[in-house]
Design goal:
This protein is α/β, with parallel strands linked by helices. It has a domain at 4-101 and 180-259: Rossmann fold (3-Layer(aba) Sandwich). Helix content is 38%, strand content 23%. It is built from nine helices and nine strands. It has helices spanning 4-7, 30-38, 79-86, 119-129, 134-148, 163-176, 193-208, 220-226, 244-259; strands at residues 10-20, 52-63, 68-72, 94-99, 103-106, 181-185, 212-216, 229-234, 237-242. The strands form two sheets. A six-stranded mixed β-sheet has the order 5-6-7-3-8-9, with helices on both faces. A three-stranded antiparallel β-sheet has the order 2-1-4, with helices on one face. The longest helix is centred in the last third of the chain and has 16 residues, at 193-208. It is globular. The relative contact order is 0.18.
Amino acid sequence: MTSSREAFAVRAAGLGKRYRLDSGPRSATIYDRASRMVKIRRAPQPPKPDASVWALRDVSFELSPGEVLGLIGRNGSGKTTLLKILARTTVPTEGFAITYGRVAPLLNVGTGFHPDLSGRDNIKLSGAILGMTRREIAAAEDAIIDFAEIGQFLDTPVKHYSSGMYLRLAFSVSIHLAAEIMLIDEILAVGDTAFQVKCQQRIRQAVSSGRTVLFVSHSMPIVESLCDRVIVLDRGRMQFFGAPREGVQFYMRDIVSAAS
């Protein structure tokens, strides 16, 4: 019998994430303290409405190793929240998610980079955060540098990089480090066309070697060309889970049209 580890790379069941909209309890004002001191009676206040919002609700799916899943939906539909839960940077309010293998999150450009460290030092830092050994990092370093095309700036603090340089290094680190699962948020829609094509080719190579990829994109051609399946999210809930072409058509017809 095939084990769960062999059968699935990612498993999510009933995932939900709720955020509070208020800022929590405030410090007492001088008026509040004075009122308590002289025991001023005030009329009872009606209860406040629930100041929270569900960013994600009742999301369930399973992915096999080597599968590419696209997450599409309008801004605020819960795509990034889902990736953050899988990356363990936030915890779900309800449900659970299991990832089988090491996870490389690229949720924001340069996530995990220290601005005062050089590009070379940030490669080592990112690898250490992922749990790689020094030998594993050293083995990948030359390939990372070549892909990022920032050779002459490698020993310069990344706070002095242009956004394009920062992006190239961040993606290169994520794609070359030894992780079974990659989480990518909008990175494929940033940068020039040549870099986008280069990224797509590198993702295809990673998938052919058995790595699992989940990525957020607003580029429907990229979704259709790269993905095995897609999830369409709207207001935190799954509206579609299936083939890329049908998913894109559903999104454009039912979600985008309804919002216009």
